[in-house]
Design a protein that fits this description.
It is a single chain. By secondary structure, the chain is mainly α. 74% of the residues lie in helices and 0% in strands. The protein folds into two domains: 22-85, Arc Repressor Mutant, subunit A (Orthogonal Bundle); 88-219, Tetracycline Repressor, domain 2 (Orthogonal Bundle), CATH 1.10.357. It has helices at 5-10, 20-42, 52-59, 63-70, 73-87, 93-97, 102-119, 121-131, 135-161, 170-180, 183-190, 196-219. Helix 2 packs across helix 5 (73-87), helix 3 crosses helix 4 (63-70) and helix 7 runs antiparallel to helix 12. The N and C termini lie far apart (90 Å).
């Protein structure tokens, strides 16, 4: 005899069992696919040979495996960006931003970005070049760059709160800092054989000059 309708209505459905081994295997597969994608992007063909099929072949799996993990080429590219960020030490930005003095924080932020771009130099140069003709890549890079702009704006706003700058100077200063801390500027500095360390020193000097110029403009009489 079936249970009363009220009992069926209030019954709690059984929990779906999630196998820890299956979760671990899926995580390993994802890492393997991201590694294969990073290797592909480092090749001379770069993004021209980058696809779910190409990543699947390099990782030795079926295309469906790549699709099940990421769903799209754009999502796979985002996973590659995340992996590059982790390898390049961008997680240190949180520690840099925790500095009480925004000027010290800005100097540390510059070092973090310089070291990241320097370590990812071959792949980064290809990504920037390919972004001009690849809408998905271009959108992903734009969104990442906007995060950097928001971070720099936060530091400039902290300088304004301290009385170091006037609010009117914020917009121009953020734009200048954004340009100086971007990959294209640093990569251009290293094209002639300049070391990443020397290039970073030039970037830091340019950033300090930009802040000093903005501060002087803020102090100038109206």
């Amino acid at each position: 005899m079936p249970p009363p309708a009220s009992s069926r209505k209030n019954a709690v459905p059984p929990r779906a069992y999630i196998s820890p081994l299956r979760v671990a295997a899926a995580a390993q597969t994802r890492e393997r696919l991201v590694a294969a994608a990073c290797e592909l992007l480092a090749l001379p063909d770069g993004l021209r040979g980058f696809s779910l099929d190409a990543v699947a072949r390099r990782a030795g799996v079926q295309r469906l495996t790549v699709y099940n993990q990421f769903g799209s080429r754009r999502a796979l590219l985002e996973a590659v960006f995340d992996e590059m960020s982790a390898r390049g030490g961008l997680q240190r930005l949180a520690q840099a931003m925790a500095e009480a003095d925004p000027h010290v924080a800005l100097s540390l932020v510059v070092v973090v970005f310089c070291e990241f771009y320097g370590g990812a130099q071959p792949v980064m140069a290809q990504l920037i070049a390919a972004g001009a003709s690849d809408p998905e890549l271009k959108q992903g890079l734009r969104e990442r760059n906007e995060r950097r702009r928001r971070l720099l704006r936060s530091l400039v706003e902290r300088m304004i709160a301290r009385g170091d700058l006037l609010e009117d100077a914020a917009g121009d200063l953020v734009d200048v800092l954004w340009a100086l801390t971007g990959a294209p500027f640093l990569l251009e500095l290293t094209l002639g054989g300049r070391s990443p360390e020397d290039a970073c020193a030039l970037v830091q000097a340019a950033v300090a000059d930009a802040v000093l110029r903005a501060a002087r403009q803020s102090q100038a009489p109206a």
